[in-house]
Amino acid sequence: MRIAMLARNPKLYSHQRLKEAAESRGHSLEIINTLRCYMNIASRRPDIYYNGQKLPKYDTVIPRIGASVTFYGLAVLRQFEMQGVFPLNESVAIGRSRDKLRSMQLLARDGLGLPVTTFAHDPKQTDEVLKLAGDAPVVIKLLEGTQGIGVVLAETHNSAKSVIEAFRGANINILVQEFIKEAGGTDIRALVVGNKVVAAMQRTGAEGDFRSNLHRGGSAKSMRISPEERATAIRAAKSMGLNVCGVDMLRSNHGPVIMEVNSSPGLEGVENATGIDIAGRIIEFLEAKAKTGRTKTKGQG
Questions:
Q1: Residue 146 and which of 53, 113, 167, 259 are 20 to 30 A apart at CA?
Q2: Geometric angle at alpha carbon 209, from 204 and 214, rounded to 5°
Q3: What is the pLDDT of residues 9-62, one digit of tens each?
Q4: Which residues are bridge partners to 50 per DSSP?
């Protein structure tokens, strides 16, 4: 296969591993800087240009689109889809997962376990929002935040009210969520590839930090997850429409609750923690599924 990867930094561990896994199986993989692509939006001729040259036809595309360039990255990915190139994850599915509010609404619609989550526009409704979330302590999240940035634990009613009013006063959209104390500062990252959980790790936050993100000094180890947690991760991937994703869950007193579904999960932490060749599993999925014109949405929506 001839594979394109949309990514800005070819030196990242995840990107290098995917390239190695593809080439070891006899495929070619070209890493294309998403922001250097430009497009000809013409009827029946969805061309993509890169560094002054029209890109050739690829068999499949792996989108590794950074959160900060989601809008442009999805536009480029839709252009590939319009050419009939099979995407590892479709543009519509990535868009769903990147919108924290929409993803929570879709997961709730499909009956998946979630922390109590509230959202409001008017800062005058802060007391009502906190009451719905079960009052302090609560977790306050920026809708645009990633990798634990823009996530605040407010331990008292007054501190929660101050943070919410400050964000809303600055016209910043936030979610207010129930704090799952019994999780003890750890969470589960389950890697889903093609409707199967292929690896799972337990992540623990750095000393004194309730966030368990590895980018913020957290640690990880391999773990066995329960059948309920496995089923929850698979259902979450299906709810978003993602072929490959990382599903972040907490163990609560009432079962697994989903914190986030990540459409471009990093491979370094989970491969090092579990010893599983995740990159190889992803390429194997593409070998089995990548066929021209098999995009479900064809870039629509």
A1: 113
A2: 45
A3: 999 999 999 999 999 999 999 999 999 999 988 877 889 999 999 999 999 999
A4: 37, 53
For the domain bounded by 2-95, which CATH number is listed? 3.40.50.20
**How many C-alpha atoms does 41 have within 13 Å on its Cβ side?**
3
152 forms beta bridges with 140
Helix, coil or strand: residue 65: coil
DSSP single-letter state for residue 206 = P
Nearest-10 Cα torsion for 107, 110, 113, 118: 50
Instruction: Look up the CATH number of domain 182-263.
Output: 3.30.470.20
Q: Which of 15, 36, 10 is nearest to 88 (CA)?
A: 15
Q: Which residues contact 284 (CB under 8 A, 6 or more apart)?
A: none
Q: At what angle do helices 100-109 and 227-240 cross, to 10 degrees?
A: 120
Per CATH, the homologous superfamily of domain 117-179 is: ATP-grasp fold, A domain (3.30.1490.20)
- What's the whole-model pTM score? 0.87
pLDDT score of 186 more than 70: yes
Locate tokens 């910043």: which residue? 172
Could you tell me where in the chain the CATH 3.30.470.20 domains are found? 182-263
Please answer whether residues 3 and 22 qualify as being in contact, where contact means their C-beta atoms are separated by less than 8 angstroms.
yes
